[in-house]
Amino acid sequence: MRTITLIIIHCSAVRPSQQSGVSDIDNWHRRKGWKGCGYHFVVRRDGSVETGRRLEEIGAHCVGHNRHSIGVCYEGGLNAEGVATDTRTEAQKTAMLGLLQRLHARFPKALIVGHDVFNPGKRCPCFNAAHEYSALQPPGPAGEP
Q1: pTM: predicted TM-score of the whole model, two decimal places
Q2: Three-state SS string across 31-79, please?
Q3: Which residues contact residue 27 at a Cβ distance below 8 angstroms, ignoring those fewer than 6 apart?
Q4: I need a surface site. Which of 56, 92, 111, 118 has the fewest CB within 10 A?
Q5: How many CA within 13 A on the CB side of residue 138?
Q6: What's the start-to-end Cα distance of the chain, in Å?
Q7: Distance of CA 67 to CAs 5, 38, 103, 125, Å?
Q8: 26: helix, coil or strand?
């Protein structure tokens, strides 16, 4: 298994009228010339969690950090007007917390951060992931939100 030091949270940057499950993202990423869906997990609006890449596989979701991270993406991130907004449903919030709890149990030293930490030009994931999941951060100064 890879050494995992980061769990990076993303949004798929779609409006409420659009969908972005693993099959949709897989198509988008293949059109970019990638191997397929770059995220390990996609959390749908209804709270279902789809698997993109296996955890053993290196993702394609955050330049310079894919080798040692897990990518988790939620469906949404834009409002109806196309403005970057936290559009997570209650079902998504519940499912994402459960997924992150399971990942934290398996990778307790991994920091949970938003994509915007590494790419400040993006609003992704449209909320402060490190703060929201502060209870799941590893102990010590590095894990403080």
Answers
A1: 0.94
A2: HCCCCCCCCCEEECCCCCEEECCCCCCCCCCCCCCHHHEEEEEECCEEC
A3: none
A4: 56
A5: 16
A6: 27
A7: 10, 12, 16, 20
A8: helix
Residues 74 and 129 sit within 8 Å (Cβ to Cβ): no
Percentage helix, strand, coil, to 5, in the chain? 30, 20, 50
Query: What pLDDT, on a 0 to 100 scale, did the predictor assign at position 144?
Result: 45
pLDDT digits (tens, 9 = 90+) for 89-143: 999 999 999 999 999 999 999 999 999 999 888 899 999 999 999 999 988 654 4
Residue 15 near residue 80 (C-beta atoms within 8 A): yes
Query: Would strands 69-74 and 41-43 be described as parallel, antiparallel, or unpaired?
Result: parallel
Beta carbons within 8 Å of 10's beta carbon, 6+ residues apart: 39, 61, 71, 72, 73, 74, 114, 115, 124, 125
Q: So which residues are the catalytic ones?
A: 10, 39, 115, 122, 124
Structure tokens at 133: 């999941």
